[in-house]
Amino acid sequence: MRGSGKEPEKRLKANRKRTASSARWLSRQLNDPYVRQAKAEGYRSRAAYKLIELDERFAFLKGTHRVVDLGVAPGGWSQVVRKRAPRAAIVGIDLLETDPIEGVTLLQMDFMADAAPAQLQAALDGPPDLVLSDMAANTVGHKQTDHLRTMGLVESAAWFAIETLEPGGAFLAKVLAGGTDTDLLTLLKKHFRTVKHAKPPASRKDSSEWYVVAQGFKGRDTMETEEDGLA
């Protein structure tokens, strides 16, 4: 995180209509240096710095040509990709509407829809070499249920990556509380040469989110060879 010296803490004006939880959220936003820096540098969300910090550690954006951004809204991650890999083709998908981003193809649809994978691939005109997923399920307030719903999305994203990535490609996804489930971790280790977990500095300490970074996709020929060996 760049910057110097702490700024004085900003205080909220009293508002009787504001709930205690919303007041805490607003206070945190006002005093968050990543929020201020995102506004100053033109990023749509502080989440952009999570991707920047992860890329500085793992260098998955270097030399990338085709990128899929799952859960693209509001667009901060695609903005980072555009700056760091300006020649890359990028396609993003989200249920929410995303304001246009120059050089990015945006699909407003459910990633879990049957037609979504084909539309994502068609928009790239070739296999991706990087699949990003910042998807999370809408919470229902039950911790275990919320975790299972989000991890279900992550698993679907992982299978999409495995079925579409070009050899040597990478997959990065947000996971929750404790990292990647054992079955998913086994799946990723089977198909990628390295699989690591990381929590970038921009990820708030009280957040249960982590990121799994799988690099060096072995390719579908390897998958077919392994399946033939089991036949």
From TrEMBL:
<keyword id="KW-0698">rRNA processing</keyword>
<keyword id="KW-0808">Transferase</keyword>
<feature type="active site" description="Proton acceptor">
    <location>
        <position position="174"/>
    </location>
</feature>
<dbReference type="GO" id="GO:0005737">
    <property type="term" value="C:cytoplasm"/>
</dbReference>
<feature type="region of interest" description="Disordered">
    <location>
        <begin position="1"/>
        <end position="20"/>
    </location>
</feature>
<protein>
    <recommendedName>
        <fullName>Ribosomal RNA large subunit methyltransferase E</fullName>
        <ecNumber>2.1.1.166</ecNumber>
    </recommendedName>
</protein>
<keyword id="KW-0963">Cytoplasm</keyword>
<dbReference type="InterPro" id="IPR002877">
    <property type="entry name" value="RNA_MeTrfase_FtsJ_dom"/>
</dbReference>
<feature type="binding site">
    <location>
        <position position="75"/>
    </location>
    <ligand>
        <name>S-adenosyl-L-methionine</name>
    </ligand>
</feature>
<keyword id="KW-0489">Methyltransferase</keyword>
<dbReference type="InterPro" id="IPR015507">
    <property type="entry name" value="rRNA-MeTfrase_E"/>
</dbReference>
<dbReference type="Pfam" id="PF01728">
    <property type="entry name" value="FtsJ"/>
</dbReference>
<comment type="similarity">
    <text>Belongs to the class I-like SAM-binding methyltransferase superfamily. RNA methyltransferase RlmE family.</text>
</comment>
<dbReference type="InterPro" id="IPR050082">
    <property type="entry name" value="RNA_methyltr_RlmE"/>
</dbReference>
<feature type="binding site">
    <location>
        <position position="110"/>
    </location>
    <ligand>
        <name>S-adenosyl-L-methionine</name>
    </ligand>
</feature>
<feature type="compositionally biased region" description="Basic and acidic residues">
    <location>
        <begin position="1"/>
        <end position="12"/>
    </location>
</feature>
<keyword id="KW-0949">S-adenosyl-L-methionine</keyword>
<feature type="binding site">
    <location>
        <position position="77"/>
    </location>
    <ligand>
        <name>S-adenosyl-L-methionine</name>
    </ligand>
</feature>
<feature type="binding site">
    <location>
        <position position="134"/>
    </location>
    <ligand>
        <name>S-adenosyl-L-methionine</name>
    </ligand>
</feature>
<comment type="function">
    <text>Specifically methylates the uridine in position 2552 of 23S rRNA at the 2'-O position of the ribose in the fully assembled 50S ribosomal subunit.</text>
</comment>
<dbReference type="GO" id="GO:0008650">
    <property type="term" value="F:rRNA (uridine-2'-O-)-methyltransferase activity"/>
</dbReference>
<feature type="domain" description="Ribosomal RNA methyltransferase FtsJ">
    <location>
        <begin position="43"/>
        <end position="217"/>
    </location>
</feature>
<dbReference type="InterPro" id="IPR029063">
    <property type="entry name" value="SAM-dependent_MTases_sf"/>
</dbReference>
<feature type="binding site">
    <location>
        <position position="94"/>
    </location>
    <ligand>
        <name>S-adenosyl-L-methionine</name>
    </ligand>
</feature>
